[in-house]
Design brief:
Radius of gyration: 19 Å
Number of strands: 15
CATH topology of the largest domain: OB fold (Dihydrolipoamide Acetyltransferase, E2P)
Strand content: 35-45%
Oligomer: single chain
Order of helices and strands: EEHEEEEEEEEHEEEEEH
Distance between the termini: 26 Å
Number of domains: 2
Largest sheet: 5 strands, antiparallel
Helix content: 10-25%
CATH architecture of the largest domain: Beta Barrel
Number of helices: 3
C-alpha cells in the first residue's frame, strides 16, 4: 500500500473497532498504534458508521494535530469489515502570515519573508529577513500549517524556507549543511536527510 501513496501521506487500515496497520509520514503523524480503538468523530469512525467513502478536515481536538482524512470502507460477505485511510496534512487555509510575539507586541510576518523556524528553550523562534519573534505553536504544528511548497522540516529543531537557502553542502554521516541567505548555518539531520533530498530533487 505504501507504494500507492507519496511520503507526504500517512496510511492506516482499521477493522470495525480498532486500527490494525499504520504507516506515518514525515509530514503528518497521528501517533496511531496497531490495536488503538477507533475514536468517535474521526474519519475512520464516520466511514464505518455511514458505510461510505468519507473525506473531510478533522481539527486538533482528537489527535492533537489537525489533518485531512480520506477513508474508504471495505466489506466481507456483504458486511462492513473496516476501512482504509489516507491521512494528509492540514495546510493553511487562507492565511499568508505568521504573527509573532515581539518585545513590544505582535508582528505579522508574510510567509515568503520567513527564513526558518527554530525550537529552542521551549519556544518556537521565527526568523525572517528583517524581524524576529516567538510563537506558541510547536514545530510539529507549524509543519501542518505552513505551505509545503516552501517550508521543509530538516531537523527536530528546524523548519526552513527553501527559498532562503543560499547553498547546500555535504556534511558528515550522510547529512547536509544549509547556508541560509542571512549567513546562518543549519544542519539537516540524518533522519531527515533522504526526505529533504527527495523533496528538493537532488
Amino acid at each position: 500500500m505504501g507504494e500507492l501513496f507519496s511520503d507526504e501521506v500517512s496510511i492506516a487500515v482499521a477493522n470495525t473497532t480498532e486500527y490494525i496497520y499504520y504507516r506515518s509520514s514525515k509530514r503528518i503523524d497521528l501517533k496511531i498504534s496497531s490495536g488503538d480503538p477507533i475514536k468517535e468523530g474521526t474519519t475512520a469512525y464516520k466511514a464505518i458508521e455511514t458505510k461510505q467513502k468519507t473525506s473531510e478536515f478533522i481539527n486538533r481536538s482528537i489527535f492533537g494535530v489537525p489533518y485531512h482524512g480520506m477513508a474508504v470502507p471495505y466489506f466481507e460477505g456483504g458486511e462492513i469489515a473496516g476501512c482504509v485511510l489516507a491521512i494528509y496534512p492540514a495546510f493553511t487555509d487562507g492565511k499568508s502570515v505568521v504573527t509573532v510575539k515581539t518585545d513590544d507586541g505582535w508582528r505579522p510576518i508574510p510567509f515568503h519573508d520567513v527564513q526558518y523556524l527554530e525550537a529552542k528553550d521551549r519556544k518556537t523562534h521565527v526568523i525572517s529577513t528583517e524581524h524576529y519573534g516567538t510563537h506558541k505553536n510547536t514545530l510539529q504544528e507549524f509543519e501542518y500549517l505552513l505551505p509545503r511548497d516552501s517550508f521543509v522540516r530538516c531537523h527536530r529543531s528546524f523548519i526552513v524556507n527553501v527559498h532562503h537557502i543560499e547553498e547546500i553542502f555535504p556534511d558528515t554521516h550522510s547529512t547536509l549543511l544549509l547556508l541560509m541567505k542571512d549567513g546562518s548555518k543549519i544542519h539537516v539531520s540524518q533522519s531527515y536527510s533522504s526526505y529533504f533530498r527527495k523533496l528538493l530533487g537532488f
